[in-house]
Structure formats: structure tokens, C-alpha cells
């Protein structure tokens, strides 16, 4: 998408280094395009096969000039050795007729249709594919817009059932999985951006993420898929953990980001055996409970889940691994502080544990702490929710404001599960620095950023700190065992 030929050549070399197979050349991005001269250089000097696109404004591109000149440039690209050209459905009939009998042997025409408003019904997409095929297309390309993550299924169905090579893409953040799961559903190719700031469509992943984060080359029709449901969800580091784990032991699976609005609709739609389950984050930890067939007894008591597995019989079983991850990290921090070796009794026993927040993670910490014999205090913005949780674990309740002046004893343990201090509000903290001196250990469930203001200030007051990444890795490890059935 460079604005000069030189810039494009640099980008082409970068695409090859990253590991792309083909490079798409967007002629409509060039500032002063001189067809004969520029195409000759771009196609002949490209280190990869080229797909040439000259997208007009009426189909979401930048070209506003004469239509005949635009098509002349695409024909010229074909003659000069491009492997593919992309032509819009509206003009495909005429274009394909004009090159009839003149196509080089390995040259293919992609006929594309872009819908910037929504993803139509199965029937409407089917009719669209038939129209594209009727133009003489070698490859069908359909790009729609995701209003919900379940829209992707309609594109997957089309790709699986299509008689000719098909590229199916759903744009927007809710459509991300359509770019990633393309090889699973028989898609001809997928697109990756050279860098995050240079996407050619909303929601497009980078080529580097496709290859390194999601292990795109390993995805096949029989690959199982997992993911994390949340809203927002793009910040989650879970795909990094799980995809690396799957790859290292040779499990044929991929783990994705699922931006989900309606949890029930999501599970009703993605219900095939090759969908193995999900992790679950804010704000779905409690709502998802209602969609489950079975809930692990511990998760039921906590009233929040973060791990959902689909059993071979199709039933959804839910677990809570957050409490294991967080509590074990805190226990290890306390053992380190006291120089105690891991033993049978928990170093949390008898400790005063102050939990900030009464959401899903707060429930996990409060319940887990109580189970280990800690005396639990729950602080929340609204006192009603704090009381509700404190009553369940036999603890005390207070508001977040009251925490600043709460220190009935020294050497307490603090666990923050609120989002105060999370990116982008990294200068915020849920509790003033002077109040931290009464705590021997401070844990923050936030892991973006890793070193929150709360943890920095706790360290300065001499407390042992436990990072949110510790909980993330440990709870992820428990989920991994649940997903795969493999021992730790």
C-alpha cells in the first residue's frame, strides 16, 4: 500500500521476510501512477508472486479516474506477469470477456464483492457466489462486515461448500476469526497487514501475528479451535500462551480472540465438535454460567467461570481456574516472604485478605482465600455487591473509599481485581500509597501493564508484589489441562 514504487518494493521485501506467499499490490495507493513503467518494475522486481488490485472509490478504494484506464492497467498487469488480478463484480463480466483467450497459463482472475454494511443471509451470499461464478471468475472473493461474531459462520459455510476456489473475509474486529480460520474452512487465501498501522480493511490481522501468534501454517480442516470470549478482548495475551503450548506438544489446535456480544448466541452458533471450548473474561464470566450444561462445584460456589470445555457429547462444562491461579501465586509469594518451603498448610491461613472488587475475579479471590483459611474483607464501589460476596465467604464488606483508612492490623494481604490502573489509565491506582504500608503482600490481577502503579508503589513501601501475569499463566495452565486432558 506504499504511495511510491520504491516504497512498495521495500514493503514487498518485508512481506517476503515475514513469510508471505503472495503480495497484493494496491495500485490505487500510488500517488503518481504511470502504468507501463511502474507495473513493469513492480511485477518484475517483486520477490513474490503478485496480486494486482486497482480499487475504485465506489468499492472502497482510492481510484477516482476513468474506468477504461483502470481496466487497461489491470490487463497490462496480466501481460507483464502478475499471478492474479482482483476485479470487482460490477465490471467483471466485461473485463473477463476482454481477456478471453489471452490469459497466460498460470494467471487467475479474482472477482470480488465487498459489503461494507453487514453480512447477508446464507441464501443471499449463495446467490452472490453464483453471480460471481457466472462472470467467469477463477476465484470468488466475498468480503462482508461483521455486526456480530456469529456472522463469520455464514462465510465459513460458503467456503466449505463452494465448487470453485473462494476467499471469504468478514471485516471488523468481530470478524477476526474469518481471516484466521480460512485454511480450516477451505479458503483459497487470507490477507495479513505488513504492520498494525497499515491494514487494508478493518479488523485485518498482521501477517506476523497470523504466522507467529496464531500458527496459521499449522491450521488444517481437522484443526480444533479454542479461544477467549470477552468484550473487549483484543488485549488478551491468552492466544500467545495457548498457541505456543499447542505447538510445542504438537496438538492440532488453534486459540483465537473472540469478541462476543451475546454469549448464548455465540455458543448456539459455534456448536460443532471441532469447537473445543473457550476461556471467558469480562464481562461474560457470570452470564456464561446460564449457558452451561454442567458447572464444576467450585465454580458454582464462586458464581463465576473462566473456562468452558465442550465434551465429546457436545455438552458444555464450566470451570473456574482463576482462583487456583491467583491463590497459588499469592501463597508462593507469602512462602518466599516467610522463607517457608511449600508444605501442606497454606500461608494464607489466618491472614487478613482484603479483596478489591466483587466481580468474577473478586469472587474467585474471596472464595479461594476463604477456602485456604484467610479472613476475607471485600471492598467494592457499591456496598451491596461487597456485602453479597462477603456474606457468602463469611467475611466483612466495605466500600473502596473505606480501604484507605482500614488497618486493624499489620501484615495484611491485598488483592486488586478492579480495572483501576489498567491500560490506558495507567496512572490510576485503587488505593493511595500511604495505605500500602500495612500490607506484607500486594497482588494485582491486571496484567496490561504488567507493572501497575499499585504494584510499583507497593514495592516502594516494602511489600512483596505478585504480578497479574502470574495468575494469568497459572490459571491458563489449569485451563490447558482441562482443554486437552493432558497432565500438567
Automatic annotation (TrEMBL):
Gene3D superfamilies: Aldolase class I, Leucine Dehydrogenase, chain A, domain 1, NAD(P)-binding Rossmann-like Domain. Residues 228-308 form the Shikimate dehydrogenase substrate binding N-terminal domain. GO terms for biological process: chorismate biosynthetic process; shikimate metabolic process. Residues 348-419 form the Quinate/shikimate 5-dehydrogenase/glutamyl-tRNA reductase domain. GO terms for molecular function: 3-dehydroquinate dehydratase activity; shikimate 3-dehydrogenase (NADP+) activity. It holds the Pfam family DHquinase_I. InterPro entries: Aldolase_TIM, Aminoacid_DH-like_N_sf, DHquinase_I, NAD(P)-bd_dom_sf, Shikimate_DH-bd_N, Shikimate_DH_fam, Shikm_DH/Glu-tRNA_Rdtase. This is Shikimate dehydrogenase (NADP(+)).
Amino acid at each position: 500500500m506504499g504511495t511510491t514504487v520504491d516504497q512498495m518494493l521495500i514493503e514487498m521485501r518485508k512481506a517476503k521476510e515475514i513469510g508471505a506467499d503472495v503480495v497484493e499490490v494496491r495500485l490505487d495507493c500510488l500517488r503518481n501512477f504511470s502504468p507501463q513503467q511502474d507495473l513493469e518494475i513492480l511485477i518484475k522486481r517483486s520477490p513474490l508472486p503478485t496480486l494486482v488490485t486497482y480499487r475504485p472509490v465506489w468499492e472502497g478504494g482510492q481510484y477516482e479516474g476513468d474506468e477504461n484506464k483502470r481496466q487497461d492497467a489491470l490487463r497490462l498487469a496480466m501481460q507483464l506477469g502478475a499471478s492474479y488480478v482482483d476485479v470487482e463484480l460490477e465490471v467483471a463480466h466485461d473485463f473477463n470477456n476482454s481477456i478471453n483467450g489471452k490469459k497466460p497459463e498460470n494467471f487467475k482472475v479474482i472477482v470480488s464483492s465487498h459489503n461494507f454494511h453487514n453480512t447477508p443471509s446464507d441464501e443471499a451470499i449463495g446467490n452472490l457466489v453464483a453471480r460471481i461464478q457466472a462472470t467467469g471468475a477463477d476465484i470468488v472473493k466475498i468480503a462482508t462486515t461483521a455486526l456480530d461474531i456469529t456472522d463469520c459462520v455464514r462465510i465459513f459455510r460458503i467456503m466449505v461448500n463452494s465448487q470453485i476456489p473462494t476467499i471469504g473475509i468478514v471485516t471488523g474486529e468481530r470478524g477476526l476469526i474469518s481471516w484466521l480460520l480460512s485454511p480450516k474452512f477451505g479458503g483459497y487465501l487470507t490477507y495479513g497487514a505488513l504492520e498494525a498501522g497499515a491494514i487494508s480493511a478493518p479488523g485485518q490481522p498482521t501477517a506476523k501475528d497470523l504466522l507467529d501468534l496464531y500458527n496459521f501454517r499449522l491450521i488444517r480442516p481437522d484443526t480444533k479451535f479454542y479461544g477467549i470470549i470477552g468484550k473487549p478482548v483484543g488485549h488478551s495475551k491468552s492466544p500467545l500462551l495457548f498457541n505456543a503450548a499447542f505447538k510445542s506438544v504438537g496438538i492440532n489446535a488453534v486459540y483465537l480472540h473472540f469478541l462476543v456480544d451475546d454469549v448464548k448466541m455465540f455458543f448456539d452458533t459455534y456448536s460443532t465438535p471441532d469447537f473445543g471450548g473457550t476461556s471467558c473474561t469480562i464481562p461474560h464470566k457470570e452470564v456464561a454460567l446460564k449457558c452451561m450444561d454442567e458447572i464444576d462445584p467450585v465454580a458454582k460456589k464462586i458464581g463465576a467461570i473462566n473456562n468452558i470445555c465442550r465434551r465429546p457429547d457436545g455438552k458444555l462444562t464450566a470451570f473456574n481456574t482463576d482462583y487456583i491461579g491467583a491463590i497459588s501465586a499469592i501463597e508462593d509469594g507469602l512462602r518466599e516472604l516467610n522463607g517457608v518451603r511449600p508444605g501442606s498448610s497454606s500461608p494464607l491461613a489466618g491472614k487478613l485478605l482484603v479483596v478489591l472488587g466483587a466481580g468474577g475475579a473478586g469472587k474467585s479471590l474471596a472464595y479461594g482465600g476463604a477456602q485456604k483459611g484467610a479472613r476475607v474483607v471485600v471492598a467494592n464501589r457499591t456496598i451491596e455487591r461487597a456485602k453479597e460476596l462477603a456474606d457468602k465467604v463469611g467475611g466483612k464488606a466495605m466500600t473502596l473509599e473505606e480501604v484507605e483508612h482500614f488497618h486493624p492490623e499489620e501484615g495484611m494481604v491485598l488483592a486488586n481485581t478492579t480495572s483501576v490502573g489498567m491500560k490506558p489509565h495507567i496512572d490510576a491506582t485503587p488505593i493511595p500509597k500511604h495505605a500500602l504500608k500495612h500490607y506484607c503482600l500486594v497482588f494485582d490481577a491486571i496484567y496490561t501493564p504488567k507493572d501497575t502503579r499499585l504494584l510499583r508503589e507497593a514495592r516502594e513501601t516494602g511489600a512483596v508484589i505478585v504480578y497479574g501475569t502470574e495468575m494469568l499463566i497459572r490459571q491458563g495452565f489449569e485451563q490447558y489441562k482441562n482443554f486437552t486432558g493432558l497432565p500438567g
